[in-house]
Amino acid sequence: MTATLKPDLSLAAGIVRRPEAALPAAAALIAFVVLFIQPARSLALDWWNNPDAGHGLLLAPLALWLAWRRGLAPDRKGQMVLGSVVLLGAVVLRYLSGLAAEIFTMAVCGLVIFAWGWRQLLRWWLPTTLLFLSIPWPALITNALALPLQFQASQMGAALLESRHIPVQLAGNVIRLPGHQLFVTEACSGLRSLTALLSLGVLVGGLWLRFPVTRLLVLLITIPVAIVINAIRVFLTGFLVFFVDPKLGEGFMHVTEGWLLFIVAFGILALVAWGASRLESLIKPERADA
Fold first, then answer.
1. 182 has which bridge partners?
2. DSSP assignment letter at 74
3. What are the backbone angles phi and psi of residue 76, rounded to the nearest 5°?
4. 169 and 138 in contact (C-beta within 8 Å)?
């Protein structure tokens, strides 16, 4: 039998009985909208226009659906002081550091704590994490990660090409083949696939695994999988350029190759999650993390 999800109307009923109780919540909500409407708009534009942030178009609605599906905790209790402190901290960081979308999730968490308390935020840990992952990483972080990932992909790809007896000369993120040059650009650093796989790792672990340890294991596995898959993509690009046609190193075929390898990476992640779930089945049910 499938349980029917029903909306929790206790908060609305309480507001109807005591309208004055809604004043603090209304004030907090209005302040949130006024202070964060521009960051929210910028975030939506980033999701739509920035290829590195496009995953937010999927993650944000999914986070909202998961929060609704999880519902409100029976023992929830609004913590106005703590929620206000978190909201105030978000506002201060917003204006002192010039951050916008990066503080949006912190402000949302402050609203949840204000209305329903800390326990509700813990109950919504999965949608909250997905919402956080939907926020584009600050340029400071992406710039710090992209270049090392480019060099790593170049080195591993060049090593794989040499293993196939292809003459290779590596100079930073440039792979020189006889008559051809491959540039491992920032878009080919693997940062996009790493972000997407991290989000999938969190989602798979939250939905199908019960123990924090196995969830963390799946999440950690996504990092080497993303790096290795990206190195294989560099290798295949060089292999096809050298043996088949230089045009295969760019355009539609290059993009298709990336999508196919991402599907392979997701298959590996699903296999690891299945193995983790089998491991969990050997552990006593009373030790499961609800």
1. 175
2. T
3. -65, 150
4. no
Spatial strand order of the sheet with 169-171 comes to 169-171, 174-177, 180-183
Tokens of 131: 């919402």
- CA 259, CA 238: separation in Å to the nearest integer? 17
Mean pLDDT of 43-58: 78
pTM of the model: 0.74
Percent of the chain with pLDDT over 70: 78
Question: Could you tell me if 195 and 201 are in contact, meaning their C-beta atoms sit under 8 angstroms apart?
Answer: no
Residue ranges of the domains in the chain?
A: 10-136, 140-287
Q: What is the largest CA-CA distance in the chain?
A: 79
- Residue matched to tokens 């409407």: 37
Cβ proximity of 40 and 104 under 8 Å:
yes
24 Cβ contact list (under 8 Å, min separation 6): 80, 114
| Residue 169 exposed, middle or buried by CB count within 10 Å (0-12, 13-18, 19+) | exposed
> pLDDT, tens digit, for every residue of 146-169?
888 888 888 898 899 888 888 888
DSSP per-residue string spanning 44-57:
HHHHHH-GGGTTHH
Handedness of CA 172, 177, 182, 184 (dihedral sign): negative
| Alpha helical stretches, state H, the chain | 10-17, 22-49, 56-70, 80-96, 101-116, 118-123, 125-133, 139-163, 191-208, 212-243, 251-281
**Residue type (1 letter), 263:** I
Task: Tell me the torsion sign for CA atoms 276, 277, 282, 286.
Answer: positive
Q: Are 270 and 278 in contact (CB under 8 A)?
A: no
What are the tokens at 231?
């190195």
The helix/strand/coil state of 136 is coil
Distance CA 134, CA 146 (A): 18
